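Justification of resources, computational component.

The compute hours requested in this renewal are based largely on the per-chain cost of generating structure records like the one below. Each record pairs the submitted sequence with a full structure-token output. That output is archived, and it is also reused by downstream analysis tasks.
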Amino acid sequence: MSSKTKTTATKEDGKPALVPKLRFPEFREADGWDSDELGKVAGFVNEKVPLAQVPLENYVSTENILPDYGGVGRASKLPTTGSVTRFRPNDTLVSNIRPYLKKVWVADKEGGASNDVIVIRAKQRLLAQYFSCLLKNDAFIDYVMTGAKGVKMPRGDISSMKAYPTLYPSKPEQQKIAECLSSVDELIAAQARKLDALKTHKKWLMQQLFPREGETQPRLGFPEFKNAWKWAVRKAGSLFKNRVTKGEQGLPIYSVTMHDGMVRRDSLDRNYYDIEDAAGNKKVCRNDIAYNMMRMWQGALGVAPEDCLVSPAYIVLAPVKGTVPEFFQYMFKLPATLLTLTSHSRGLTKDRLRLYYDDFARITLRCPPPAEQQRIADCLTSLDDLITAQTQKHEALKTHKKGLMQQIFPSPEEVDA
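The structure output for this chain reads:
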């Protein structure tokens, strides 16, 4: 039943019309919104086009639609045979594999989409810009997941999608909503570009601040160390000792990740390790480096911000005097260093590799004097602080948009209330 009928019925029954919690002033006295099934206000495109007519830059698959409504990247390759679904500008493309990844993109060009990408086109009652806002929406994704089939690789059910209750006001109000959300999207995109630029700068800086393979000094140095001696070659065992202290009750438990270093775990899966059995864990002192010996080749390590406990599967490196742990935290994540760490690990396959302390201690590392170590660590840490601050701004904008969308769209549940 379309919402025109329903809205009239609710008014006759004395029930409030279907309206959002937050409405632009010029529409506060306007009629209630309409509602209809998605399949009635939009078409699910099934027009096929030969692959030979689709250039690589115009091909879209689940691979190159970016998660979290992040847009689309360039595809790495085209399929070898078959045909694809033709899409046009302003069509909305939805990845139908693992819908929870929120891979939704609004086309700004013509092209072809793989069979795992659903192409949806707004009909006459909906403006294309407004329609895209309806689908780039957590409410739509949550609905799709309720009808998804499969566990490891869930897929959305198209017949269920077609029944999605689609809510819409008059076209002038649709336009106003689309313009509002578009301006927020532009802010989010600008913040994302700043964040990407900072990450790219950090990657370049690390390549310059550490010597390349076969070189004895970095290509970029700080002026105060211009005339310092060349970086010395040291055994890792002379820089870090193996801390084997057993755990103590009352200390917080940490784990390490490849991207965030050491992270406090206030709630743990008991299958991981027993939070109450402090004696079964290892103690880490502040400024120690802890690494997961089964994931060191992936850069799973971090510097302890406080005294804490870690899993028995970790190795705890206690820095000797003159060793700046933050400097080595960055060094250990360099691609060349990770290859060295991997070559000294034991195991028949990569998934079974383990880097024990005795093997780690024999690795040779090239490093500068302590003062230069500290200077490099401070530089990279300050850049990480900027990246963290920019990430928080980016996330805050996305949270703001999510809250805004919950206010300016009526809830789909209201349709059947």
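The two ends are 14 Å apart (CA to CA). The first strand starts at residue 34 and ends at 37.
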